[in-house]
Amino acid sequence: MTIQSLKTRPVEQRPDQVRLSGRALFLVDDAELVRRQLGGEDLPWPPAAPLRDNISTDEITPAYICYYYDERLGDFPYLGLKAGGEFPITPGSVKAGGFVCSVAGKRRGKRARDDLRLGDYAVVRRLRDSQLGINRIRLVRHRSSFR
Q: Which of 3, 56, 84, 94 is the most exposed place for a label (fewest CB within 10 A)?
């Protein structure tokens, strides 16, 4: 491929908005609000409690979950998430909730473990980086949907 062909190749701009159809899991710092969402209640935007910031890798996929390497990982996203000093998420609850995205505050784990991405397959994530004023979207599919 020559440099000239790269200069003339058409490049399409991504849309500045994305519409997601389905439920959003708000990762709030209130265990009861998280449990209510897992039980089927949809919270309004903005949620009544603050979104969790600085969600660690261990909260997204605790280390002991990394022993799994197949579709069972999809049962464990956010199992280590602490909300209001409690751990409201139970195995399979995020998957059963039918969420299409999760919404958190600033910063999530930095993908330090290979299995982390698999554990986070249960959601489509939309992150707002308020410092830069941009939206970043990562689309991922739950592995069990490929059975």
A: 3
